[in-house]
Amino acid sequence: MITFVTEQNLDEILEKLSKMTLWIPILADQSDHYTYNNVSCIYVFDVYTEDEYVFGFSNVDTDNLMFMNFLSKIPDGRKFCYNSRYLSTYHDDFQDADLLIWYHTGNRIEIDQAYLGIFGIYGRMYPNIRNVNDVIPIMRIIEYCRAVTDQFIKLGNDYILNEENGYIYYDEFVFKTLINIERSGFRVDQDKYFDRYGRRTPKITRTEYNPYTLTGRPSSKFGGVNFNSLSKSDGSREMIISQFDNGRLFEFDYDSYHPRLIGKLIGYELPETSVHRHFAKSYFGTSEISQEQYEKSKIITFKQLYGNISPEYAHIEFFQKISEFMNAMWDDYLAVGYFTSPLSGRKFKSEWYIDMNKAKMFNYIIQCYETEVNMMVLEKIIQYLYSKRSKLVMYTYDSILVDYDPEDGIEVIREVKRMM
Predict the structure, then answer these.
(1) Which of 21, 48, 254, 311 has the fewest C-beta atoms lying within 10 Å of its C-beta?
(2) Long-range contacts of 221-225 (CB under 8 A, 24+ apart)
(3) What pLDDT, on the 0 to 100 scale, is given for residue 106?
(4) If we measure between CA atoms, which residue out of 104, 107, 194, 110 comes closest to residue 157?
(5) Distance CA 210, CA 222 (A)
(6) Sheet with 248-253: strands ordered across
(7) In Å, how far from its chain's centre is CA 11?
(8) What is the Cα–Cα distance from 15 to 46, expressed in whole angstroms?
(9) What's the CA gap between 125 and 256, in Å, rounded?
């Protein structure tokens, strides 16, 4: 049974909801970032009773509720949310529905174009109208929400009752940390942005991170632009500027990040000095390393890590330990049909991948481990900066970008560097 909620029955309906629900928010505008958007309506499916509810806020077919009043009354219970970032700005008690499916199956919820297409139809019919989703007939939106619900129940039925620690880790640390970075935003030089993309963007621009990749290493994009991939060489990164008077952008990256991560994983202690000079001494049999040998050392190391370890270097203890680790993980993978993340314990199942091999498995483990370690560090940095004006505004797998306000004092930068 479907119920359209009004101010008169709002309290009664919220009290009726069981402790297991799926929430599907629909934004009003199709092009604005969710932080600049409004929620047009929310469809709620009660997993235990299978009742459906529509909470309208600006859709033309609904009795529009007062959004902030509604938010203050959201009940307790396990609330899954499709596109949970849309509501996380207001309420942090939602668990991401797509993340649950991805965590356990390796895939996201996929919606048939017949249901998803309604948004594109109205977007094309009214290309110059803001908040076009407000005029989409509510029954068409309900059809779409039912398609999402059917897929969520079909794919997630074995998992929705299971609060597995690994999934909770991903929801609490990985997903919500990325959302916190999204909310910070970063300032762009609007003229340079227009010259490059031929359209305008808000002064404080935001992206969206996608953690639903093969290994969990996030990608990012919004409005067709991947700011993380802007090139240093062609000057395109220059469009990102500080939002503060006399502010500066500080990029922090790790020295030899993957070798150091791998060292922690296999129990090999690397020096705090240059990793590549450390390995060069073994490669070239000398303690005095030239710049040419240093550069060659980097190439040799990464060839061993991302390919097969050459017999020429197999005797080096670091690579011996890697081989032992890989062999043990591969034997387990063949025996049980999955390999696990060393930190969260997430299972990467053999049916998710085509042509898996030992080297590929090792690379996937490292990318997963890298992401999970990074999120714990980023969460600490975000908490530290919470009371400051400076912000963590961008993340890539081995670096972060901090927009520094001089009013905070340079000690802020030193502390961020120390935390990394």
Answers:
(1) 311
(2) 222/33, 223/31, 223/33, 224/197, 225/197
(3) 92
(4) 104
(5) 10
(6) 248-253, 399-404, 391-396
(7) 34
(8) 12
(9) 51
166/169 Cα distance (integer angstroms): 5
Instruction: Give Cβ neighbours of residue 244 (< 8 Å, ≥ 6 apart).
Output: 389, 390, 403, 404, 405, 406, 407
- Give the model's confidence band at 84: pLDDT under 50 very low, under 70 low, under 90 confident, else very high: very high
The three-state secondary structure class of 302 is: helix
Q: What span, in angstroms and rounded, lies between the C-alpha atoms of 15 and 73?
A: 9
> Using an 8 Å Cβ cutoff, are 171 and 147 in contact?
no
Cβ neighbours, 10 Å, residue 341 = 20
Helix and strand numbers, DSSP H then E, in the chain: 15, 16
Give the whole-angstrom CA distance, residue 106 versus residue 347.
Answer: 10
pLDDT digits (tens, 9 = 90+) for 271-305: 888 888 988 888 888 888 889 999 999 899 988 88
Tally of CA atoms within 13 A in the half-sphere of 350 that contains its CB: 13
Amino acid in the structure at residue 346: R
Q: Which amino acid is at 163?
A: E
User: For 1-48, how does the pLDDT look when each residue is reduced to its tens digit (9 = 90+)?
Assistant: 899 999 999 999 999 999 999 999 999 999 999 999 999 999 999 999
Q: H or E stretch including 129?
A: none
**Residue 255 and residue 400 in contact, taking contact as beta carbons nearer than 8 Å:** no
User: Above pLDDT 70, what percent of the chain?
Assistant: 100
**Structure tokens, 2:** 């479907």
pLDDT at 234 over 80: no
What residues form DSSP beta bridges with 186? 205
User: Rounded CA gap, 258 and 304, in Å?
Assistant: 12
Structure tokens at 312: 């020429």
pLDDT average, residue stretch 160-175 = 85
Neighbours of 96 (CB within 10 A): 25
pLDDT digits (tens, 9 = 90+) for 35-81: 999 999 999 999 999 999 999 999 999 989 999 999 899 999 999 99
Rg (CA), the chain: 24
CA distances from 127 to 120, 131, 205 (A): 10, 10, 21
Terminal CA-to-CA distance of the chain, rounded, Å? 52
Q: What is the mean pLDDT of residues 340-368?
A: 92
375-380-385-387 Cα dihedral, nearest 10 degrees: 130
CB 134 within 8 A of CB 118: no
